[in-house]
Amino acid sequence: MALTIGDKIPDILGIDQDGKELKASDYIGKKLVLYFYPKDNTPGCTAEACSFRDNFTALRKAGYEILGVSIDNEKSHKKFIEKQQLPFSLIADSDKKLVELFGVWGEKTLAGRKYMGTFRTTFLIDEQGIIQKIITPKEIKTKEHGQQILEIK
Q1: Cβ pair 44, 142 in contact under 8 A
Q2: Which runs of E-coded beta strand occur in the chain?
Q3: Is the pLDDT of residue 153 over 70?
Q4: Which residue of 39, 68, 92, 102 is 20 to 30 Å from 83, comparing CA positions?
């Protein structure tokens, strides 16, 4: 069963680009933007990450910390962060534990071809680690996603 609004997120989130274990308890007292994206260095994912980068100061001022998640490995994340100058961590969910737990892993179709992949989804989590809002793939505008979150009341 996928996590949904009102659920507490697990404490152990995963390993970031530097091999450091990230925990939800590290973010207690802060709001968290936990965003899942398909792949490092692809056009939509780069636009989304850069939107968070460009709105980073405003998001922090609004009380948010940002964490990105994809199934890419630590090395890929490190390169992506350096290339795009991202001021936040990315979780390397290579074993697909988080994408499956959050219910964002499933069958996708591109040009008539079916494959398994990550659905671009964002979870807004409160200061106690409880999911408050889920922004679905159809709602996310990659180039404006950081601003979209700032406009949520």
Answers
A1: yes
A2: 12-16, 21-23, 31-36, 64-70, 89-92, 105-110, 113-118, 121-125, 131-135
A3: no
A4: 102
Rounded distance between C-alpha atoms, residue 19 and residue 29, angstroms: 24
Q: Confidence class of residue 110 from pLDDT cuts 50, 70 and 90? A: confident
Q: How far is C-alpha 56 from the chain's CA centre?
A: 14
Q: Which residues are catalytic?
A: 45
- Residue 44's domain is classified under what CATH number? 3.40.30.10
For residue 34, being part of any structural domain is answered with yes
> Does 127 reside within a domain?
yes
0.90 surpassed by pTM: yes
Domain count, the chain: 1
Rounded mean pLDDT, 20-43: 97
CB 52 within 8 A of CB 74: no
**Strand pairing class (89-92; 105-110):** unpaired
